[in-house]
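WARN no homologs supplied; continuing
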Amino acid sequence: MALPRSTTPAVGTGLVVFQPLKRKRCAECGAGPLSLLTLEGGGPRCLDCADLGHLVYLPRGDTALTRRSREGSALSAVVVRFNRRKSRYERQGVLVEEAALALAEQRCLADAEARARRRARDAVRRAARDERFAAAFAEEILRLFPRCPPERAGRIAAHASVRGSGRVGRSAAGQALTPRAVTAAVIAAVRHTETEYDALLMRGIPRGEARRRIARGVEETLRAWGRGTS
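OK structure emitted
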């Protein structure tokens, strides 16, 4: 039951409690199967045997409530679970003292309206920044491809720069508006909307082969939009 060195969860200082993927019993009292456990001497221990049984579980999701609960709790632990697909431990929540959680809930309720207003203001500011960035991205598309229809450039920029999408516009190169990143966004858009690329994928054609088949069509569109003339 010992944790592999490479996958030991990095949670900073403090106690760590695990949500096991397999059925485990406490090595000390035999209780189980355990939904939460600690590791002592390489063996699983239930929370009672680990002197953590008086703590209550707070799932992740409310950052303010979690922070305040941990601040007010003399004893707390981070709860993690191993993600096999990503080969790493991920936080699931925390264990805190019940009184600390109750106090934190009261504090969060007391300033909920203020925090909601702050989140709304932050959302407005983010939306304004995103709009300015999308406009700058579209301008760079038109600089690199001056004959690209402006409305098309706008759609490409909006799609590539969606916050949290992981698309090229949100990469470091995209944020810097490098020609390579902007061109990559244009090529991706042309590939999906100006060629039969998606249809080839739906027919089971491997991605590399599908890209090879539509490469000439992509290049023709880029030339028509004036690539290399600016």
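The CA atoms of residues 37 and 46 lie 5 Å apart.
OK
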